[in-house]
Structures
1.
Amino acid sequence: MQAAIELIEQAPPGVEVPIVQIAEHAGLAKSVVYRQFAGRDELDRRIRSDITDRFVGDIEDALDIGDGSIHQILVRTVDAVVTWVTEHPRLHEFLRTGPSEADPDVDAMSSLIATLAASTRALVTGLAGVVGVADDGSADAMTFAIVSMTEATVTRWANDPAPVLSRQQLIEEVASYAWHVVDGVARRHGLTLDAEQPLTTVITQLMTNGD
């Protein structure tokens, strides 16, 4: 997988890397690669799955709720998305060319967004349970909206040859959009959040107020 990913990153946009080139880069015979995969489609699905795992890993590291305020966590996470998209444009593009192993019926980018939304939803639902708020489906809609909005906005910015916003302006802007969504959902559940306090402190206060 590493050999394939390295070659995809080096290839011009839209150019498919031949299997023989992947095999040579990995120091393998082409026949060895074909014995491991039923064909090109299976190889590409495996590559997209590997790319997805790397992307998700970077984003989940940024989502560490034990480190920072809500604002800092949102900024850090959006920053991680911007970093990944700008540093790996060919991999990001490759995710849109077909499915991963996760779901054969949708492209890998859609699967990636669903995976990130599910991971974030589990985190939000867990926090809601800690402070005594029942999950009514809002977490599902909220996390998918934030994840899909962030990916689409960052991608549009990255593909713009002359973006109006600087990198830092984009990060702050998208993080503020995400905060307004989170704040709005929290208020509908009767919760008042402070975006600048450490999230662990906010959770402790909400638990205390609920007793």
2.
Amino acid sequence: MNKQASCISKENPYCELAQSYLDCIRGSSRNEAVRLILDAVNRGVDIQDIYMYVFQPVQYEMGRLWLANQISIAQEHYCTAVTQLIMSHLYPRIMTFEKNGLSMVACCVGGELHELGIRMVTDLLEMKGWDTYYLGANMPEKEVVRSVKDQNVHLLAVSATLTSNRPRVEAIIKEVRQTPGLEGVKIMVGGHAFLQEPGGWEKIGADGSAMDAVQAVELAFSLCS
């Protein structure tokens, strides 16, 4: 029996909503999961709270259950797909015309397919008035650097889940640092690959790293203010 505590803690202010969402996903009830979240937002639950207190802990919980051999990798991927679907439904609600003048390119490195976390960061910053350019998963290094230069952004956010992909993150950072015209671009990194070694971001030349999506938003403002 797996005795590790659930990632949906009782201290979570939306514990019941998160648990209900998890139950829907584990029961393969996609439509019910969508309805559950949209109803919560319509009742006034802040979208940032949905991301932080529902999507994030449920995703962590599905990962925990997979590691404990209680669900299949297909079920974990199903959870991600449903959450991405709901995020797409929510996107029109997070767009704002009150821009703050800050901009960011965000992506996962080449070989990295776990993109939900960095997409959450992108959406949350969009809610805060940033112009964001989300490139998605599995991005080649040179294409990332080209996008940073073409979009003339203030910040590059790079995510990696697998520790084996950290050298690719480092390669992107090195390429950005060596590209004329990008001297002022700040770089933050995140994902499970950096949670395992606090401070590891400094070794590869990043300007900072965040533990979760909300912390990443705070860091983005701190780096670019």
